[in-house]
Design goal:
There is one protein chain. It is built from 13 helices and 15 strands. The protein is an alpha/beta fold. A 6-stranded mixed beta sheet has the order 3-2-1-4-5-8, with helices on both faces. Strands 11-10-9-15 form a 4-stranded mixed beta sheet, covered by helices on one side. It is elongated. 33% of the residues are buried.
């Protein structure tokens, strides 16, 4: 069994040595330390903890007689949050940074909890509050009952002191500052570090097995927790919305008309002796789709006029009235992106206009079960 400490930190790297000390005091052995932080946080860790000459992490190990080779903690174990361009961020300054933080927390938590031989100790004591919240969310989603979430409480006068990293075996005097800004000296033997176990609810066993093969985006994971027996798809042509598992997706009239056409083909299928999900008898090839373009056009006109759109202008621009193989593929690709955005990647695979067979015998249709499709005209 391997114990992994997965922690978030900001500009106070002391939280790592304090947490490690507290775990060791409770007899919890750690074989690996993994850290989620910013670019500035990484620099602080390298300067104050991992410096080969005076790093406080190595001082702690030496002070307490711990073999450095028994714990994996090096530059490769420091995971820095990056923006969409792959550049390390200095701080979590906005919604996009927070989204990237959550993605990193989910990815690393998924990685470390995928091995049943690992136990993960989540440390939420460091960094901004949003960092703790994101790591806690990852623990809720991917954590297992034997994993643990910890917070570390340090005596207030020592907590904010930049020279205090852990209580050394031999007590030393360090300068502290009181509430009035006056300096005074106090022995480190008075420092108290308390490791607090934070209860968390593991929902991992409620996530669909297919979603535990690789890290997923948060919307997909959240949708998988919404249990409907069975989930249904509503295509509302009046409001131009798709409704699935309690979520609504607005779709432009052109794409909705094409999607509704394939949904109608699926619902009109008369086969009853096979599993609809894995049957492609109602799928159409490109020629058949073009031959039935008038049905798609009628759906489009009905939708556009019901929503008070400028129907004829949109029809001439969009190509939905003169569908060919090229613009069909373009519409199909956009519909897939709509579904991913609205319902997540896993759901989109069930709901998309899928293809089967190789060219020139490729055929298209919706794999979702016909009895779970409802259309509102």
């Amino acid at each position: 069994m391997k114990n992994i400490l997965l922690a978030v930190t900001g500009l106070s790297p002391q939280v790592l040595t304090e947490t490690l000390y507290a775990l060791h005091q409770q007899g919890q052995i750690v074989q690996s330390i993994q850290v989620i932080t910013t670019r500035q946080g990484k620099e602080k860790i390298n300067a104050y903890l991992l410096s080969p000459t005076d790093g406080q992490y190595y001082s702690y190990l030496k002070d307490y007689g711990i073999n450095p080779s028994s714990i994996s903690f090096c530059a490769e174990n420091i995971h820095v949050i990056k923006d969409r361009n792959g550049i390390e961020i200095d701080d979590i300054a906005g919604e996009d940074d927070n989204e990237r933080l959550l993605e990193l927390c989910l990815s690393l938590t998924f990685q470390f909890t995928s091995d049943s031989q690992n136990t993960v100790f989540f440390s939420i004591a460091g960094g901004r509050k949003t960092m703790s919240a994101c790591l806690m969310t990852a623990a809720h989603l991917y954590g297992r009952p034997h994993d643990r979430v910890y917070h570390v409480l340090v005596s207030p006068e020592f907590e904010s002191n930049r020279d205090f990293f852990y209580p050394p075996r031999e007590s030393v005097s360090i300068e502290l500052m009181d509430r009035n800004g006056e300096q005074y000296v106090k022995e480190t033997r008075f420092a108290r570090i308390t490791l607090t176990s934070v209860p968390f609810i593991s929902v991992r066993n409620r996530i669909e097995d297919d979603l535990l093969k690789e890290p997923q985006d948060p919307p997909t994971l959240m949708l998988s927790l919404i249990r409907e027996e069975p989930p249904s798809l509503t295509i509302d042509l009046i409001t131009c919305k798709l409704i699935f598992k309690g979520r609504e997706l607005d779709m432009p009239p052109t794409r909705l008309a094409l999607y509704a056409f394939f949904a109608s083909i699926k619902k009109d299928c008369l086969r009853t002796d096979t599993n609809c999900r894995h049957c492609a008898d109602c799928y159409l090839n490109s020629i058949a789709i073009e031959q039935r373009n008038n049905e798609i056009a009628e759906l489009y006109k009905r939708i556009a006029f019901s929503r008070d759109f400028h129907a004829m202008r949109e029809a001439s621009d969009g190509g939905i009235l003169n569908l060919d193989e090229a613009n069909f593929k373009s519409y199909r690709s956009r519909i897939r992106r709509d579904l991913e955005r609205g319902f997540g990647l896993s759901a989109s695979r069930m709901l998309e206009i899928a293809s089967t067979g190789k060219r020139p015998d490729t055929r298209y249709g919706i794999p979702f079960e016909r009895e779970r499709i409802r259309m509102i005209f």
